[in-house]
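Thread title: Can someone regenerate the structure for this chain?

I was given the following input by a collaborator and told the matching structure tokens would be attached. They weren't. Posting the sequence so someone can regenerate them.
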Amino acid sequence: MFRRPAHPSRRTDDPPGHQGAELPQRWLLAEWPVTVSEPVQFWLSSLPYGMTLATLLRLAKLRWRIEHDYREMKQALGLAHFEGRTRGGWHHQVTLVSAAHAICTLQRLAQDPEDTAQD
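Best answer:
Regenerated them for you:
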């Protein structure tokens, strides 16, 4: 559904000179499984008109992957373990964690899908 949000306040992503007269149109996506009586999740998107539904859904669900990867980097790979005081040390830590995450991601993508189903 491509509609205008109802709230008339000024937003940072509104076009210059907007003055709150009419808000730009936005996509409203709702996840509503057939097994439940009401929608379970909503997304409001500023992606351009004409996007395919598959692209909208893929991008809306991408947030879960980003949050999962960030949690993995903090907890399993040590991003949250940095206790130094220098910017150089922090950059070193982030670089090593990012490289480790890239290796883990490549290994996960290279696995046979049937192997991952058994884990």
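The chain has a mean pLDDT of 81.
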